[in-house]
Amino acid sequence: MSAEMQKKEPGFAIWITGLPASGKSTLAAALAEKLAAEGVNVQVLESDIMRIMLTPDLGYEHADREKFYHLLVTVGELLVQNGVNVIFDATAAERHIREEARYRLPRFLEVYLRCPLEVCEQRDPKHIYEKARQGLYSGVPGLQSPYEAPLHPEVEVNSATGKIEQEAETVMAELRRRGFLKQG
């Protein structure tokens, strides 16, 4: 059997969740950098970018979000099955979405960025909360619609501290503990 035909070892998936502006993209970038430094390839699936690519015509109503997240999980599943490690940088405010990913991706790590709404509003680079308060946005998780925090995340960090290096190291340690990465 040729090397191309041999089955690749499946990748792992990390889902970083938390309120908008809790630091998901910052942590995803820090993790991708740390993994790359160890020679581990990873694909970040950032929800804003993936939404434009996968579902440019969908809005933010409940049914649209459901469809988008189902497609996002499917893309992640295809990548992981083919040996690509994935970081989901996506709020996924409803717990069942992340649980679907957990079910479909056996090498899965959920990372919850716990951050008070007030801190998220102060940080908000996209002005999501401000626009929601002005009536320009609706359904913003944690403000206008519920955000269902994970019940049993593999990693939970207080991202209000802004200690991104420490947060990334905590996730890397859990990846090693689970055997997703070689011991350093």
CATH topology: Rossmann fold
Give the class-level CATH name.
Alpha Beta
For the biggest β-sheet, the strand order reads 2-3-1-4-5
- Helical/strand content category: alpha/beta
Count of discrete alpha- or pi-helical segments spanning 4 or more residues: 7
The rough form would be described as globular
Number of domains: 1
Main beta sheet: strand number and arrangement?
A: 5 strands, parallel
Radius of gyration: 17 Å
First CA to last CA: what distance? 33 Å
Give the CATH architecture.
Answer: 3-Layer(aba) Sandwich
Task: Tell me how many strands there are.
Answer: 5
Low-confidence stretches: none
Helix content: 40-55%
Mean pLDDT: 91
Keywords:
184 residues; alpha/beta; Rossmann fold; 5 strands; globular
